[in-house]
């Protein structure tokens, strides 16, 4: 895809699939959003630790964890014009997996903030995930060593939010019964 594309153009997942694989994009309501360059070491550390804890917790269970890049088509059964690549996601309904993407909302999404993604992750994606049916969304900030959790209610009109910081040992994943993420490990090397 040409980085100089016109902002007023509208795209769908079909268009998205034809773009250069060497460039990372997300598609929000038909508008392409270039993804930030390679993440920082702290970002990668946090993603790796959280993914590993989820992987071992979910082994032998019906849910499956994925790590970016993996396409999530949030409105595939409608306009199919929104594709995101969360840092980490968990899918418990395996009928949503088509071999190369998630068709619909994952159950749990984690985004680790990067300097260039603050607004996108804190505002745009929070609203998008709430609207699309994601059940729980975490925003991990390696700079402040905090985790903001948002558990969306079934009517998709609100959420229960909590903030955990490095002084707390663990944060519970509300939609995965019995799962907690060890924050000492997540922030320990930072």
Can you put this structure into words, describing what you see?
This protein is α+β, with helices and mostly antiparallel strands and about 190 residues long. The protein has one domain: tt1808, chain A, CATH 3.90.1570. It has a 6-stranded mixed sheet with strand order 3-6-8-9-10-11, with helices on both faces. It has a 3-stranded mixed sheet with strand order 5-4-7, with no helix packed on it. β1 and β2 form a beta hairpin. The chain is globular, with a radius of gyration of 16 Å. The N terminus is likely disordered.
How would you summarize the topology of this molecule?
Layout: H1 13-17, E1 25-28, E2 31-34, H2 41-58, E3 64-67, E4 71-73, E5 83-84, E6 88-91, E7 101-103, E8 108-112, H3 118-132, E9 136-141, E10 146-152, E11 159-165, E12 170-172, E13 180-182, H4 183-187
Parallel strand pairs: 4-7, 8-9
Antiparallel strand pairs: 1-2, 3-6, 4-5, 6-8, 9-10, 10-11, 12-13
How would you describe the shape? Answer: globular
| Total E-strand runs | 13
Secondary-structure-derived class: alpha+beta
- Write down the secondary-structure element order: HEEHEEEEEEHEEEEEH
CATH architecture descriptor text = Alpha-Beta Complex
Query: What composes the largest sheet?
Result: 6 strands, mixed
The end-to-end span amounts to 36 Å
Summed over residues and divided by their number, the pLDDT gives a mean of: 90
Instruction: Indicate the CATH class.
Output: Alpha Beta
Helix content, binned percent:
10-25%
- The spatial strand order of the largest sheet comes to 3-6-8-9-10-11
CATH superfamily: tt1808, chain A
Compute the number of structural domains: 1
**CATH topology annotation:** tt1808, chain A
